[in-house]
Design brief:
The chain has 380 residues and is mostly helical. It has 15 helices and two strands.
């Protein structure tokens, strides 16, 4: 279990709602009027999901999400440490410049996407699947009875209705004479156009719907079915947008540093104090973390929408499209607003998570510095 699992699980319904809104196709109104959307807002989505699928539907794919988060953290930090160490040896420097460090972090992010992209495809598919399709049953049509089969049917029916199989009457009906009589009656009915048919109950046939083949009972089942139906490429849908989204943390950290520096300088001027001795409160760090995450989310959000649409299973209606094809199709058919679908839920989720993280980080950093000064590891 990786750090932040509890907050991730707590806020997971917002991620589910965001994904459903992202893949919801919205058509521009024409002369006949706009096609009504399934969900009109995040709240409407949540209420309809709970009503039609139960409250557990808000947590579909949670296992894949937790596994993906844990694997992503481990893979990223392992490769980041390895690449950083190799770069330091190659450049013969213990401290890397911010630019070089950013390149190392980006490479680690790319490798992380290569390892974890299939997990997030499974996570997206499980978020989007609804109730398990029900099996349809129907009666198998029976061929018209032949005279011989009709005779047999008449004989068996008369035997069953008249007496048990062990009765004297049943034994009498089973005699050759009774059988010949029944055959004669059947032939007479055929001659006058009154062909009897078998009256045995029709066999019930279970028809398995195509949707059942795409229903995932768990993470492993989803992996197997996607790989079997779509091949390895199916597990790497949305790969290019995912690579672009590796820039999100860099944008977030840059925005956070710039906002924090601006606030500190402003506070120092107002208090006529040295910038180095000016600190912000935990609430201010909380708000700055949330704002920095909001900025990075707004900038990169269109790629998140495209990634979700590529990862969703559209094989039944259209061929898998490239990132540019998806973006052009969305812009042409749905308008620019389609790139912001579900942004509200995403902002609430990511901002709360990031704000808590940054506030905790600043508190721990301050505490560590106090301990270091107390024991004279660093100068005050």
């Amino acid at each position: 279990m990786y750090p932040g699992t509890a907050s991730y699980a707590l806020l997971y319904p917002l991620d589910t709602i965001r994904t459903r809104l992202q893949v919801q196709v919205h058509k521009i109104a024409d002369n006949n009027g706009a096609v009504p959307e399934e969900y009109t807002s995040g709240l409407d989505c949540a209420l309809k999901m709970i009503k039609s699928e139960g409250w557990t539907s808000l947590y579909k794919g949670l296992t894949a999400g937790i596994v993906g988060g844990g694997v992503s953290n481990d893979v990223y930090f392992w490769w980041y440490s390895l690449l950083k160490s190799l770069t330091q040896r190659f450049l013969k420097k213990k401290v890397l410049t911010p630019g070089v460090n950013m390149i190392v972090a980006t490479l680690a992010g790319v490798i992380n996407i290569i390892f974890t992209s299939p997990i997030w495809v499974v996570n997206t598919r499980m978020m989007l699947q609804k109730k398990r399709p029900t099996h349809k049953t129907h009666s198998a049509p029976l061929a018209p009875a032949t005279p011989q089969s009709a005779a047999t049917s008449v004989t068996s029916q008369s035997s069953a209705s008249a007496a048990p199989a062990s009765s004297p009457l049943a034994v009498l009906n089973a005699t050759p004479g009774a059988t010949l009589a029944a055959t004669a009656v059947a032939q007479l009915n055929t001659a006058v156009g009154n062909t009897p048919h078998a009256t045995a109950p029709a066999a019930a046939v279970v028809e398995e719907s195509e949707e059942d083949e795409d229903y995932y009972t768990g993470v492993i089942d989803a992996f197997v079915k996607i790989a079997k139906k779509e091949g390895l490429a199916g597990l790497y849908r949305g790969f290019l947008p995912s690579l672009i989204l590796t820039s999100n943390p860099a944008i977030q950290l840059t925005a956070y540093d710039q906002l924090a520096a601006f606030m500190v300088r402003r506070r120092a001027r107002s208090l006529q104090r040295d910038v180095a001795r000016t600190k912000l409160t935990s609430i201010e760090y909380f708000l700055l973390g949330a704002l920095a995450k909001a900025i990075s989310t707004v900038i990169t959000y269109p790629y998140q929408v495209v990634k979700s649409r590529q990862q969703a299973d559209f094989t039944k209606t259209e061929e898998a499209l490239s990132m540019m094809d998806v973006m052009c199709t969305m812009l042409r058919k749905e308008g620019a607003a389609s790139f912001t679908q579900g942004m509200g839920a995403k902002l609430v989720q990511t901002c709360l998570t990031a704000a808590v993280t940054f506030a905790t980080y600043e508190k721990i950093l301050t505490m560590v510095k106090r301990i270091a000064v107390k024991y004279k590891f660093i100068n005050p």
